[in-house]
Sequence to fold (317 residues):
Amino acid sequence: MNEQVLARSIRDLPDIVHELKTKSITLGYGAANRHVRLSAAWCAAQDFIPVPAAPATIGAYLASLATSHAPSTIRRRLAAIGKMHRFNGLLWNPAHQDIQAPLRGVLRAHGRPPKKAPALTLDMLRQLVETCDRSARGRRDRALLLLGFAGALRRSELVALQADDVTEVPGGLRLLIRRSKTDAVGQGAELGLPRGRYLTTCSVRAFHDWMAVAQHKAGPLFRRISTAGTIGTEALNADAVRYILLRRAAMAGFQLDGAERLSAHALRVEFITEAYAKGMRDEDIMRHTRHRDLRTMRGYVQRAGLVAESPAGLLDL
Fold:
């Protein structure tokens, strides 16, 4: 595909989106919105109709991503386009041969195992928390790490928390998650966080320590802090969670190779792993983590126990 044509189409995205909206087409939210916009730009560059898209158009679009995008990204693009069609009451058949044949071809030629976030062990979490001093930045980071772990929160959910989304109740805190990856319509969910057994890893105490210096009862819970230590009014963005985690990991002296770089998702992964190790039931864990797919959740646990639970360990080798 001519890169200049695509670049021009992306610049024309506002016009493309406006045209779709005049036809009462809802594009979706967040990442799904971005995926749909990019597919619309590609269609415009090829003089294809983006909505409703013919199966052959979708297949050609997926094929165009083969050498530049990971299979997981291509699947997300397809899911976003499908969700947009279904949401707007448009005909959508992802099993159509004109879609599945190119998709299988792409995965067969360029497929590779998806990268999975490594778990952050409890011992590692304690070491991260120990790097957080009593400054505003240290208190914010401690609260962010511990609430993120205890709530099994996605980074987008962490930065979206408002101060009044956290309510003190007998024995701990109640968190309101207004919107999440699996709750695009914003029905919301509530989580309970009990007081921890240890002061250093108690999410409730960390929350109160942060609020003692933040001193705001409304607006974003986790805010930007200037180099001078001044607490701002703007919320952290999602990428900031990863940077905070990596910065604290460096301060703790962690040695991480390229294959096992920590991500913000590691907090969520370790909660699931620890919950399984404590014998919690699948449904109880899924209610807390708000997973909808049992296979996805168990995948993290299976990866963590690849060596320890391998049947090869029972052999006389």
Summary: Confidence is low (pLDDT under 50) at residues 1-29.
